[in-house]
């Protein structure tokens, strides 16, 4: 079942919007910083750091557990998972020129 595109919440700042855009960019960027992703996820969902160092993220109806990346950037599989979660929760980047 397709979800209608949700109007982006006003609590997303330009940094969050930039992170959202790069997550959905094709080809997939290999320079998406984990702290930026974490900040975005905290703005749109619920993030809980577990005792084992993993992050439980709830966004809309979905919950995923993510490992903290070994390096500063997230891997391609995490990008794929984030795209799915964000899209299913109604988030997607705005088309260029429609940022307002």
Descriptive overview:
The chain is α+β, with helices and mostly antiparallel strands. It has one domain. It is 35% helix and 14% strand. The chain is built from three helices and three strands. A three-stranded antiparallel β-sheet has the order 1-2-3, with helices on one face. A hairpin with a 5-residue loop joins strand 1 (46-49) and strand 2 (55-59). Helix 1 packs across helix 2. The longest helix has 13 residues, at 76-88. The protein is globular. It starts with 13 loop residues before the first helix and ends in a 12-residue tail after the last helix.
Number of helices: 3
Q: Which radius of gyration do the C-alpha atoms yield?
A: 13 Å
Overall number of strands: 3
Structural class by secondary-structure content: alpha+beta
Mean pLDDT: 86
Strand order, main sheet: write it out.
1-2-3
- Which band does the percent of strand residues land in? 5-15%
Segments where pLDDT lies below 50 for 5+ residues?
Answer: 1-8
The succession of helices and strands, N to C, reads: HHEEEH
**Domain tally:** 1
Basic shape: globular
> How would a textbook summarize the main sheet?
3 strands, antiparallel
Helix coverage percent of residues?
A: 25-40%
List keywords for this structure.
100 residues, alpha+beta, three-stranded antiparallel sheet, 3 strands, 14% strand, globular, disordered N terminus
Summarize the structure.
This protein is of the alpha+beta class and 100 residues long.
Q: Secondary structure elements and their pairing?
A:
Blueprint: H1 14-24, H2 34-44, E1 46-49, E2 55-59, E3 62-66, H3 76-88
